[in-house]
Amino acid sequence: MCGIVGYIGNRNVKDVVIGGLAKLEYRGYDSAGIATLDNDKVTVVKSVGRLTNLEKKLEANPVSGHLGIGHTRWATHGRPSDENAHPHQDCSGRFAIIHNGIIENYLSLREELQAKGHQFRSETDTEVVAHLIEELYNGDLLSTMVAVGKRITGAYALVVMTKDEPDTIIAMRKASPLIVGLGEGENFIASDIPAVLEYTRKVYVLDDGEMAVVRKDSVECYTLAGEPVTKEVLNVTWDAVAAERGGYAHFMLKEIHEQPKAIRDTLTGRIASDLSRVVLDEEVNWSRDFVKAIDRIHIVACGTSWHAGLVGKSVIEKLARIPVDVEIASEYRYRDPIQTDNTLIIVISQSGETADTLAALRDAKARGRRVLGITNVVGSSVAREADDVLITRAGPEIAVASTKAYTTQLVVLYLLAVYFGQERGLLGEDQVRDILAGLHDLPQAAEEVLDAAPQLEKFAEEWKDAHDTFFIGRGVDYFLSMEGALKLKEISYIHAEAYAAGELKHGTLALITDGVPVIALVTQTDLYEKTLSNIKEVKARDAFVLGVTFVGDEALRKSVDEVIYLPRTMPLLSPIVTVIPLQLLAYYAAVARGNDVDKPRNLAKSVTVE
Ligand code: M6R
Fold first, then answer.
1. H-type helices in 97-216, by residue range?
2. Residue 351 Cβ < 6 Å to ligand 1
3. pLDDT category, 345, cuts 50, 70, 90?
4. Closest-lying ligand 1 atom to the alpha carbon of residue 401
């Protein structure tokens, strides 16, 4: 985690750095800090807590200069505190550094440096790097950082400045994201693109094992060994406004409402105009023989992306008859999974930077497997390291709770399932056309379901003091229940659990008592009667049941306390629409409880530690 910003140029350095950090605060927000170089002096100001605390401190202790670096922290080593906030400095105060990642050998380095007389001020792993630079500095920051890179192990995006070289910032990257924004007479460094969009759309995405020497009028890139590398400029098509809240009270609400567009964008160009086939040929480099030979698929992801994978399993198995295992990345990578030569690995990650998912990707590649990455971030590690990539076109997702990334991941998985089915000769023309017509209509259905917002807001207000909530469903509705429960827990802090509806009576039914809220998803026509029986089981224990079903289902209304109606879609495609009321329910519950919706406690948007 952690957000990093660096600037060199003629603007007000504090404004650029703080403005950039505000756009990256989703990466961590337990403390923040800034270092600037002014009049031959490095000045550092830092504060525990949100960025606003730092801003208040800066009002009392203004900083200026033409060069600066800043950081928002998500604690791993050392509790959130002023001392542990970045930037960190060496003993002399000549150097200042910021870091995202973990220096794994920091304990032995710390002992070594302490033995040489270095005085440490924090409990962090990062501070060793500042002292190591001081120890190794030879008058040339670039070659010093090459030497530093040889001594440290682990994951890092590191940015360093020194009063001894007042026209230079150095950024280096190993396993943690880092970009350089290219301006005219100014340049920028950041962990993520939204931080620089206000100033430039031209960026270099540093690859693993690269560093950049950033000056006002030039950016030179090198390997960590100091060999020059030539980078291609990435032209970013998002504009700065797209990364802002756009009038909504929270990013999450904005992102929920952006789903019809995000779904449409993700479908664009991937369905033939006569709805006869899915077209992915320009994005994946697979021959028909390769697709036919796939004998199993492992989908690997974390959190919400893992939930998308579970729906993907159902639909790929149904349409393409390929056995699919869906694995939590942090488990998969440690358990020596059984893969055949023809196993396709699919990693799903909104950010494309989740450490465990990336590690699983790298492990699969090391075993000789072909990896498909599904990610929302062009230029992310998943996008660059996977053999083939399908980008979800959700646009920047800022709220920690994932919404539009999930629905667009589902869209890509549906397209993939139809693609596999068509290439393997399993789907008839009519079947393909029906499914693709259904996908084509989804943006409209997503638009309509947003009309349920006032009903969900009222319901959330009434329920906001619940201690426990249960989500139940069968088939894909069970996987949707898991996503609904995660969303509610994550931002409202109400305990929530998801159950396959038929499983309740094997234990959990004991927890259902008078008034306990149960959200029952009933979109799978072939499982309708069975789910209805399970609803009756909880009603008989006096639960309060909110049913979610298709418009026109009057039978369910009689069996539950309240109903949310969804526009009709094919049951196969219903998850993309069903999840939206669950997102809204979580959102309004969090608002009703006065929580910080976009930045829930203890969490960060991009989990770049294992
Ligand atoms: O960026 P990723 O999709 O790899 O992130 C995975 C999870 O950390 C993420 O989906 C998380 O569960 C969300 N905050 C849930 O809303």
1. 106-115, 127-136, 141-151
2. yes
3. very high
4. 16
